[in-house]
Design goal:
This protein has about 230 residues and is of the alpha/beta class. The chain contains seven helices and eleven strands.
Length: about 230
């Protein structure tokens, strides 16, 4: 089963073309999935076509399993993925808007001694659409407020640059004017220091913010903390 949110608008149009679906209807479906709507909620798409899609595709990437709200308004989400795995996201509110910390992998293989994400090792990478689904689902949780999430940090479970291709695809999707249209300037990617992919990222010409987790002032100590 594939996730429709993994596709940008033009790719989705091409994917649905063999179904005999007109271009305008593909744009309608693209609009629905970017609002976190499942097939049953796509009221302007024929029931027959929705059932055909349901056989091979997911419309949503995850569901909210649990939500905890702190005294300062911070909200922690536990999401269940379609394969039964779990990830977390954290929403933080500031004067300038709301920032969502998203996960990029189920688990992590970096082995940092201070991080709970590494305890079970890496289970699998998230797809671009699964990373995007975290933002879309939180937007819907705020009664479809158009800009509920204004800023994004890739600092949840997983090492973003260890899931390079999917993370780059996500960045293009979330920045797309046809989608959520979140500015690259409002996105921060945190890495433990995957140097070859840091160079690759620099060549993508995406003006996102890059942060590097050091956690020690000497290389010897850092290697102990972050093997």
């Amino acid at each position: 089963m594939k996730l429709l949110l993994d596709y940008d608008l033009n790719t989705l149009i091409n994917v649905l073309e063999p179904f005999g679906h007109p271009k305008y209807a593909s744009k309608q479906i693209f609009g629905w999935i970017n609002k976190g709507r499942d097939f049953d909620e796509m009221t302007n798409v024929s029931k027959e076509f929705r059932e055909r899609l349901r056989q091979d595709y997911y419309a949503v990437g995850l569901t909210v399993e649990k939500k905890l709200t702190g005294k300062d308004g911070t909200v922690k989400y536990l999401f269940r993925l379609n394969d039964g795995n779990f990830i977390e996201s954290v929403l933080m509110s500031y004067k300038y808007g709301r920032t969502l910390c998203v996960s990029t992998q189920v688990g992590c293989r970096m082995g940092c001694t201070f991080c709970a994400s590494a305890l079970g090792g890496l289970v699998r990478d998230l797809t671009a659409g699964e990373i995007l689904s975290q933002i879309i689902t939180v937007n819907r949780d705020f009664d479809d407020e158009k800009r509920a999430v204004t800023n994004v940090v890739l600092m949840g479970s997983g090492e973003p640059l260890d899931n390079y291709d999917n993370v780059i695809a996500f960045l293009r999707l979330v920045n797309s004017p046809n989608g959520l249209n979140i500015s690259y300037r409002n996105i921060s990617l945190s890495t433990s220091g995957i140097v070859p992919n840091m160079y690759r990222l620099a060549e993508e010409n995406m003006p996102i913010n890059l942060t590097v987790s050091l956690h020690a002032s000497t290389q010897q100590k850092r290697e102990q903390l972050m093997p």
